[in-house]
What we know:
The protein is mainly alpha-helical. The protein has four helices and no strands. The chain has two domains: 2-74, no CATH class; 77-109.
Amino acid sequence: MFEEIRKGLLSSLGAVFLTKEKVEELCHKMVSEAKISKEDAQKLKEELLSSGESHWSQVEKSVTEALKKALNSFDLVKASEVKELEKRIEQIEIRLAAFEKTAGPPENT
Length: 109
């Protein structure tokens, strides 16, 4: 009976989103109804939580990749690119100030 319950729960997507409290509640209920032993309930709980974490990591990775693709499609500027441009502008301003000191101010025409 334990194997059927385990396979059923692990194969369903709902197992991914079970909270720790719900898993513990479910296992306690199955033990109290004498459907499985305490040892089997502990194994099931550990397996469900481990499986949920693994699936959550996969979901998180997929969402992250999808967000990166979406953001790249908007052709947005990255903060690192802005900082690089700020550095370049600062360097140009320094060079321009030095040039103006040696060449004098520009003449009005």
